[in-house]
Design brief:
Length: about 190
């Protein structure tokens, strides 16, 4: 049985998924996100990833009979995710296919893992990661530093699956990193 991934909440961080990410419930739209991730200068390589995720209800509250969907804690299970990592990997909890590798030579490792994407050097500098999520086609595209760069496009058919849990932005960082969402756009097609 596979171990469930857990979230670690930092004191003082907003914990309301419903308030922070109500935009994710709007299906039929393309969403553009810009994440800014920065790290402190150090001799050890640090890890970061950005993407989208779907999380379940907090299991500790379920055991106590409390239904608070806005709470994230170490007991909140990760249901699904698609992530672009700082070591150049694309990882998911579902099968994914690369529809376009952009300017990179990607290598298919398993049904839910590709490698060979751009590596992010986060030693003492900020870097912007651009993510476009299309919940109509079930695609994600990823770029570093600019919207004009040729994107890596990943096809995720499971993004089209109906679920009571919305897709939300995901940022996972190592100690010494900081991250923020700089920009969020809903792109309406006519």
């Amino acid at each position: 049985m596979a171990a469930k991934m857990r979230w670690r909440c930092v004191p003082g961080v907003q914990r309301s998924r419903r308030a922070a990410f109500s935009w994710a419930r709007i299906l039929g739209r393309c969403t553009r996100l810009v994440f800014e991730v920065c790290g402190i200068p150090c001799k050890h390589e640090k890890f970061a990833q950005v993407g989208i995720a779907r999380v379940g209800a907090d299991e500790a509250d379920a055991l106590e009979g409390v239904a608070d969907e806005s709470k994230l804690s170490v007991f909140t299970p990760l249901l699904d995710s698609v992530c672009f990592t700082s070591c150049g990997d694309i990882q998911a909890t579902m099968p994914i296919e690369v529809a376009s590798p952009g300017d990179h030579h990607l290598c298919h490792r398993t049904s839910d893992w590709w490698s060979g994407g751009p590596e992010w050097d986060l030693k003492g500098r900020a870097l912007r990661a651009y993510l476009e999520v299309d919940l109509v086609r079930g695609d994600l595209s990823f770029r570093l530093e600019s919207w004009t760069e040729e994107p890596i496009v990943v096809s995720c058919p499971d993004l089209l699956t109906e679920s009571p849990r919305p897709w939300t932005p995901l940022v996972s960082i190592s100690q010494g990193h900081e991250a923020r969402i700089c920009d969020l756009h809903l792109v309406c097609s006519s």
